Amino acid sequence: MDDLNKFLEGFGRFRQKYFVDDSALFKRLNSQGQKPSTLVIACCDSRVDPAIITDCAPGDMFVIRNVANLVPPREIGPTNQGVSAALEFGVSVLNVERIIVLGHARCGGIAALMRDDTGAASAGYLARWIGIAETARQRVWSEFKDMPLEEQIHACELASIVVSLGNLMTFPWIRERVEAGTLKLHGWYFDLERGMLLGYERRTGQFVVMDPDFAPKD
Length: 218
Description:
alpha/beta, Beta-carbonic Anhydrase, Chain A, 2 domains, 6-stranded mixed beta sheet, 9 helices, 44% helix, 17% strand
């Protein structure tokens, strides 16, 4: 079976589940519109679909996906700013209650950033985009310069999430809601090698396992 047929058969199962067996959810979503409580900024990586790894139903989360799950700092100008526009829609129109920056292991975008020791290149869409995480790379090079490259990449995957959390606060309509206590910001990291979810603790500056019952296998 080629991928196209696989996708079409999958849509058939989706339609059976949500439009035949139990049509209440989409009837509600159609009549009332979307009202997700959570906005997730996730990577384009085909292995890391936030709705799948959190077992969510349609309508549960508003998702922004891009290379390396990055949030650019606020910019003012005529350039097209897709992530910023989606953030504005999620926060100011949908009034989400939380934003989750969801990073992951084996991120190709962060690996590309760490392997370029010439600095953030100006040519090319990808190089310019991943340059958003340049401060994360500089931190890793400063604090973990003696680590093997693979460990540096892992450290940068975590550090880039913190950079994006900071960039979120450059948007005044996000900062105002965070300071008022009506919007929460979270940093999550999906370890796809071990099937583990980590969460960022601002108090300690560390990522900790979010499932207390998780016991990694040897």
